[in-house]
Amino acid sequence: MLFEVWAPRAGSVLLKTADGCRPMECDPLRAGWWTAEAEAADGDRYGFVLDGGPVLPDPRSRRQPDGPDGESAVVDQEAYTWRHPWAGRGLPGAVLYELHIGTFTGAGTFDAAAARLGHLADLGVTHVSLMPVCPFPGTHGWGYEGVSLWAVHEPYGGPAGLKRFVDTAHGLGLAVVLDVVHNHLGPSGNHLPSFGPYFTDTHHTPWGSAVNLDAPGSDEVRAFLLGSALAWLRDYRLDGLRLDAVHALADGRALTFLEELAAGADALAAELGRPLPLIAESDLCDPRTTTPRAEGGLGLHAQWNDDFHHALHTALTGESQGYYADFAAAPLAALAKTVTAAFFHNGTYSSFRGRRHGRPVDITRTPAHRFVGYAQTHDQIGNRALGDRLSASLSPGLQACAAALVLTGPFTPMLFMGEEWGARTPWQFFTDHTDPALAEAVREGRRREFGAHGWAAEDIPDPQDPATRDRSCLDWEEAEREPHAGLRAWYRELIALRRALPDLSDPDLASVRTAYDERARWFVCRRGDLRIAVNLAGAAAAIPLGSGRHRSRTGRVLAAWAPVEAPGADGVLHLPAESCVVLADE
Length: 586
Fold this sequence. Notes:
GH13_cat_dom; Trehalose_TreZ; eight-stranded parallel β-barrel; Immunoglobulin-like; cytoplasm
């Protein structure tokens, strides 16, 4: 077997295997690369010794059985026998479901999560969006401080466990998208700096030195990241990637890393004959993120739309702190702007940022499915002081309204695990750092951050306390009880409508129409021959809908959270408090 490693600063490199250490040779055709041949089979341990130092894991390790600091292990990618043929599934018409392996079940493993995938298929979900699964120190964590970007977290089940999960999902008709983090690596267990210039002080980020995308040595760093991304798609049969915080990728080169990645994914999709969408998380409100490369964009296939979330959240909760301030003055107007123009900040002033922000979307040319819409995500729950979901403060009726706006809206909808039954379990920030100093720094940093906003230190969950993770695990028995079972049935009904009615998957943003009353707190979205009306107020609302495209039409109720009659000849819809309805023109 050929072992190779990029270590341009090393004067000597040894390959360490079970048979001992042997010298590696410089590759005459690739500067900085070292190679050696050795006998090896699936599961065999190995590592590299640079200039007489300690044994280090392979930067391209496919498995870390003993965690990020241990030796690497050989993985035979052909050893797994795939059970289900799979032609892939694209984003148009998709319903995403964000899932964290470590808390989706109490066991926190791929196999335990796979056993629950039937629930998602029954719900009508099309794509499971996995939070990061790269190795990180300890057992439990969000995954955004991962290292070993080619490997799979061993406590979840390692490479074989991920393949079993994906295979099971495909057998149920579910595609699987994986969240990958290229903008930083965890501070603990990160051995990349020992091998080469993977990071640079040319740019600085909230996590310290930036990943080296444009400084000397960046060609190999970009190849490292690109190779990792494509390996997930090829070796694990994943159906796409979610790219974490792409706005934090410091990259001054003319051809950006994101363009390279998009081109690589498109080429692999053509080779494999199945779609491989890339979904960006970006706070730039820049349509160029998903504009095709031929038209001067980056060519990613979709992006999360936090503006839609913020408008919806303020409309539902009335919160106005932090970045919600920009949306809270007139939340229904903000919601109307996002569902018709995609971004609220499209060149407008942002009080949170103290400057103008964003760029307009050409709604006549940009399909709506390029934007992912949601009421809750891991970020928007877990980054709150107590990790409280909407269910902690909203009635089932208001949660149903949120579901109606997300699942009948123009964007690709996404749910966060447990949202579909109004899970009352929080989803809190938890870590399992093995370095005591780092653990204490994270603990105190969390308390300091929220203490500045008036929270008492003792009220902030300790990220290192195992109970914090345990509280965040879904309670599956809860889903069978009322009012949770009723809410779950509502989600299923809305998803079925989205699948059955072409108007609800129409990608034409320019055709979306809205009406609203800020004071009365009702909102109506028109999509083709359908109208979705929500009443967020605590009292019944009389909503003047007119009578359809022709004034003789009255409409027909397709789905309703609470009993409601179609509007009469006067075109007025009488909608109960905290409820919603989907109407079709007659």
